[in-house]
Every structure is written in C-alpha cells, then in structure tokens.
Request: fold
Amino acid sequence: MGGALRLGLVVGEASGDILASRVVRALRQHYDEVTLQGMGGPLLEAEGLNSLFPMERLAVMGFVEPVKRLPELLSMRAELYRHFSEQPPDLFLGVDSPDFNLRLELKLRAQGIRTAHLVSPSVWAWRRGRLKKISRAVDLMLCLFPFETAIYEEHGVRAAFVGHPLADELRDLPAAGAVRERLGLPGERRILAILPGSRGGEVRMLAPLFLETATRLASADNNLHFVLPAANAERRAELQSMLSAYPGLPLTLIDGQSREAMLAADAVLLASGTATLEAMLLRRPMVVAYRMASLSWALVSRMVTTEFAGLPNILAGRAVVPELIQDDATVSGLVDAINPLLQDPRAREAQLAVFDDLHESLALGYAERCARAIAGATSGTGGPGAAVAPDG
Reply:
C-alpha cells in the first residue's frame, strides 16, 4: 500500500500491549511509515510510541477501585481527547478496556476521526444494550471470535473477524512428559490439573469444591496425581491453608505456570472463563465448573444471554465439554464428569477432535488480518456498516 499512517492508540493492560504491538509490526509491512501516539506499554514504546501516561494507570479492576480513581481516569481521558483533537490520527485504535475506550472513541468519532476497537466487549454474553453506544463510537470492530461479527452487522457496525492470537501462538506444543519433568510431577501417573480461578472470590468458592472432588477421585484411583497452580502469592497462601485439611492428597502446588500445568495433565478441571479457551488450544480435555454467591448468581443469571459458559461450547454451538454451574457444581457431579476423561480414550478423543477443528478456525494470522482490516478502514474500503472479511 505504501504511504504513511498516523495511528492513535490507547492500551491499558499488558495483554493489550502484546496484541497492539503485533498489529503495529504487521502494519509496517503495508505502509512506508507508521507513527504512533497515545498510551501504551513497553512493547509499544519499543515500536516508537511516546506514551502520554503510564499504561498501568488504566489497569484498574473490580467495582471499588475504578470509583476511587474516577477523577484521575476522567482527567486522563480528557487529556487524551484534547491531544487527539489537536493532532488527529488517521485512525484511533482502542485496545480492550471498553469502559474507558468506547467513551473516548465516541467523542473522537464525533470530531470526524476514524475509530477502531480491538477485542470486542462480551456483548454476546451480557449487557447487549452496549451495542447502541458501540454503533455510535466505532467505525470498525476487530473481533477475535467468528460469532461476534453477525451481532455487530445487525447493528450497522463494520466488523472484521481476525482470528485469535493464542491460536497462532499455540501451534507446536511440547511433549507432556518434558513439562512434567520440569514441574517435578510423576511421569508415570495420570494427572488432573485443577484451576479454580485467579481471583480471591473464585478460589474461595471453587477451590474447596475442587479439592473435595480430587479427594473422591484419589480414593478410587491410587494412580492419580493432581497439580494446582496458584496465580500469585496471595492465592498460594489461601490454597496452602485449604490444603492443610487434605494432608494425604497427592497434589503438587506450583506458582503460576497454569499453561504448563494444563500441558502436563491428562485432563483439566477449571473455572469457566478465558482459561477454557487456552485449555482447548492446548488440546486438553476438560470439565468446566463455576459457583458464585447466591445473590450474585440471581443477578448475573438474569443478564447472561448465552446458553453456555465455556468458550469451547460457545464456539462449537453445542455441549462439547461438560459444564456444571452453580447448583449443578457438586462433588458427585464433577466426579462423574471427570472420570470418563481420565479412564476412557473415546471420551477424550471426542473433545479433542472438536478442539482441533476450532483451533484451525481461529488460527488465521491475527496480526496480518488486523493490519488489512485497519488499512481498509483508513482508505474507506467497504463503506460504512459493511462487514470486513480480510483475505487469508
């Protein structure tokens, strides 16, 4: 294509810094010059971005912290808006952080600046009312999952399915035996990885259930071992305290390394969430479970619009992996769901065959497809509201 591209960016998390930096490198193959302005992390700074604010200032989670930090966040957004209004980019790309970026995109688009957003908010799962704001804020939505584009097309939003970066990354997997050796796990036993989540609330709700399930499984199979990754030091302390009630359980507690824990395992018991996608791409049969406080469940269950909780089932459009949610998440239910994955090769292969097909559907060269879609948006290719289907 040639020419120059002035790209505005706002990235608020390390994961977004990784995603955006890959897209920038791909864009350099389409343009003679790509200049960056806005906000990002070290990887974008290595690509030439002079970040107006430290990326970490946007990385707020939960309900209380964003409220406490609201004046600072509003000030940052106002300064970014002023900057981009005075020095308009050819395109502004908001990466994730939808509560912050969509409002900024709305104001910039009203000033005639083209806008794109990378990583669709989960409007397919809940809060579909956000689609009205998105349709006013975004010229182009870059979607990681194929089912997302139709939702945007229905609301007149130009959308491109670009594939998932993890599907490109997790192509060549190491042998389970080598991973077990690195983690100090017994090479001759069947291994179940237990992942009760990374948040404190998840661990408190799910870890006791998962450990009771492990105890029941171990009592019937003395060739079974468990590996439990702790997301951080705080989670490790909580899990160690819980494990004191299970002194004879054949379990190895490790720091982080959740991906390695899954790679070492014959099967995985995990909380619903993005880890289910990673387990799928790692070709590990799984059982998905989730529990939350009764009041939270009463509220969330009224807002969720998807039939399934695990991403493999959502992507497949059918129940490929067992899901035991809320009242269904019992020790006996989990034992009955996990045992076939440990004992019956046919049950394992039934999941893995679907996982392989889904992996292929997501491994499309994410960065290059993003670059092509952005190049099309900056040149006006496709027209307002048109869906984008990059080649390849």
Notes: Residues 381-392 have pLDDT under 50 and may be disordered.
